[in-house]
Design brief:
By secondary structure, this protein is an all-alpha fold. The chain is built from eleven helices and two strands; from the N terminus they run αααααααββαααα. The protein has one domain. The longest helix is centred in the last third of the chain and has 44 residues. It is globular. The N and C termini lie far apart (70 Å). The mean pLDDT is 84.
Length: 324
C-alpha cells in the first residue's frame, strides 16, 4: 500500500514529463513509418499523378472546400449565442475562418487560441468569453466526429489492413462507444438539472439542447464535406464511406500525435488502407492535391484577411490618437 502511494506521488510529480516523453516516442514512431513508406514511393510518379488530376475534379472540390470552411465558421456563430456577445455575425465567421485555417496548418495553440484571443479581444471580449467560444468550437468538432465516425466504424464501413493491431470487430465496438459518447453529451445538455461545473478555476456551462443539436449537425456536415473533397480528387472506384472513414481515422491519429493537420500521418493512413485498391503514387498524389486545396489555399487567404484586419485596426488607432 505504501509502495502504491509512493508510486502515485512520483507519477504526479513527473506526469507532465512522462507525457512529453510518450508523445515524443509516438511521434518518432510515426516519423519512422513515414520514412519507411517514403523510401518505397516513386516520387516522379506521384508528381505525374498530381498533374493528371482532372480539372473537373478540382472545380468540384473548390466549392466543397469553401462549404466546409463556412460550416466550421458557423461553430463560432453557435459560440456567439452561447456566450451572448454582440460581435457582428460576419466578423464572428471571419474570425472563425482565420482561426480554423491557421489551426489546420500550424496547431490549435496558434489558430484556435492565440488568433481568437487577439481578434475577439479587439472587439471587447474578455479572455473568459473567448475561452468559452473556443471550448464550444472544440466540443462541437469532436462530438460531431464521435457521432459520425462512430456510426461509420460501427457499421463496418472501414476495413483496417490485416497488419494493423486493431481489426474490424474491435473497431466496431469503439464505434458504438463513440456514438454513446455523442448521444450522452446531447442527453446531458437536454436533461441535466445542473448546468455548470467549475474545473480548475474554469467554469463550464452546458449549452441548451437546441445548441447541442446544432453542434452535432454542423460538425457531422463539416466532416462529411471534408471526406467529399478527398473523394472528389481520389482516383479509382473506392466508395465514399471508405474514404470518409479513412479520413476520420487519419484525423484522430494526427490529433493524438499533436501533428498540425496530421501532416504525414494522413498520407500514411490513406496509403496503408487504400493502396491495395489504388496504386500508392496515385493515393499520395490525391492527398497532396487535397492538402493544397484544403490547407494551403485557405491559409493564404486567411493570412491576407488577417493582415487587412490588422492594418485597419492600426489605422483606426492612429486616427484616434490624432483626434485625441
Amino acid at each position: 500500500m505504501r509502495a502504491l502511494t509512493t508510486a502515485r506521488r512520483w507519477f504526479g510529480r513527473h506526469k507532465a514529463k512522462l507525457k512529453r516523453v510518450a508523445t515524443g516516442v509516438f511521434v518518432c514512431f510515426i516519423i519512422a513509418l513515414l520514412i519507411r513508406v517514403g523510401l518505397t514511393i516513386e516520387w516522379s510518379e506521384v508528381m505525374q499523378a498530381i498533374l493528371e488530376t482532372p480539372r473537373s475534379s478540382l472545380w468540384m472540390a473548390v466549392p466543397l472546400v469553401a462549404a466546409s470552411y463556412v460550416l466550421y465558421s458557423c461553430f463560432d456563430l453557435l459560440g456567439r449565442r452561447y456566450v451572448g456577445h454582440d460581435v457582428a455575425w460576419w466578423r464572428t465567421m471571419l474570425v472563425a475562418f482565420i482561426s480554423y485555417a491557421f489551426t489546420m496548418n500550424f496547431s490549435a495553440a496558434v489558430g484556435g487560441l492565440a488568433l481568437r484571443l487577439r481578434l475577439y479581444g479587439k472587439h471587447g471580449l474578455d479572455p473568459g468569453q473567448i475561452m468559452r467560444i473556443m471550448g464550444l468550437s472544440i466540443t462541437t468538432n469532436w462530438m460531431g466526429y464521435c457521432l459520425l465516425a462512430g456510426g461509420i466504424f460501427a457499421a463496418g464501413a472501414v476495413q483496417p489492413p490485416s497488419d494493423w493491431e486493431i481489426s474490424t470487430g474491435p473497431l466496431r465496438v469503439i464505434g458504438v462507444l463513440m456514438v454513446f459518447v455523442a448521444v450522452g453529451y446531447l442527453a446531458l445538455c437536454a436533461f441535466s438539472t445542473r448546468r455548470s461545473w467549475t474545473v480548475r478555476d474554469h467554469k463550464i456551462v452546458l449549452p441548451e439542447a437546441r445548441i447541442a443539436v446544432l453542434q452535432l449537425v454542423l460538425a457531422m456536415m463539416n466532416w462529411s464535406v471534408m471526406g467529399w473533397v478527398v473523394y472528389t480528387v481520389m482516383p479509382g472506384d473506392i466508395g465514399y464511406a471508405a474514404i470518409l472513414g479513412t479520413l476520420l481515422i487519419g484525423s484522430i491519429v494526427g490529433a493524438v500525435a499533436h501533428i498540425p493537420g496530421g501532416l504525414g500521418v494522413t498520407e500514411y493512413v490513406f496509403i496503408t488502407m487504400l493502396a491495395p485498391e489504388v496504386p500508392r503514387h496515385q493515393v499520395l498524389g490525391a492527398i497532396l492535391v487535397y492538402r493544397a486545396l484544403y490547407y494551403l489555399a485557405p491559409v493564404l487567404l486567411a493570412g491576407i484577411c488577417y493582415l487587412i484586419l490588422e492594418t485597419r485596426s492600426s489605422s483606426t488607432m492612429s486616427r484616434g490618437t490624432k483626434i485625441a
